[in-house]
Amino acid sequence: AGPESGSVSPVEPKAPRARTRSAYTPSGTRTLLMIVALLLAASVVTALIVIQDADPPSKTYQVSLGDLAIDAPTTMRARRANIRAVNNWVETPHTHGPGEEAPHAHDATQGVHQLQVILLKDGHSANDLRSVSAWPSDDLPEWAVAVGGAAYLAPGNAATSHIKLAKGSYALLCRFPDAEGASHASKGMLAGFTAR
Q: Which one of 46, 81, 115, 119 is least enclosed by Cβ atoms within 10 Å?
């Protein structure tokens, strides 16, 4: 006995297909875009930190040394700086009239200067260093810290000192001795500036 004619054989129902989310569906695309945005933001923050920590290019400041005088800017930026000292001392010609003695032989140290850059602490100013002893003595007060400079500048010569200026007050001075052994600073060859 076969199946009756006209009857339909039963069909077994198919198991439902497991749904998998593709990375390219709208929801997956949003997730991918969020990850990319976070990575970009992290890169920008890292770049800003690196730029902030990097030393800016150094700036050059010129300091002119003359006849017991220093001409310098009163403010400089707190950063790496090139302080260029130029000795502009010019010997004044000496003329003597009848009956006057001829001038003495030229002193080899005449017009020679040096430039010391001193960081001042505890509220001190450049004028507080007026009584500093002449070079080569290195007895600076505790509140005065030498940070650079030029040791010996003959007339017409120049030298550049590369200094990292922290914020604060500074003095520029010449401690080269005069004929009596007193420092040029004691004769007024000093100036102050502020690093901001």
A: 46
3-state secondary structure the chain: CCCCCCCCCCCCCCCCCCCCCCCCCHHHHHHHHHHHHHHHHHHHHHHHHHHHHCCCCCEEEEEEECCCCEECCCEECCCEEEEEEEECCCCCCCCCCCCCCCCCCCCCCCCCEEEEEEEECCCCCHHHHCCCCCCCCCCCCCCEEEEEEEEEECCCCEEEEEEECCCEEEEEECCCECCCCCEHHHHCCEEEEEEC
- Token readout for 185 is 């600073």
Helix ranges (DSSP H) in the chain? 26-53
pLDDT-above-90 percentage for the chain: 40
Q: For residue 168, which of 125, 132, 137 has the smallest C-alpha distance?
A: 125
What is the model's pTM?
A: 0.65
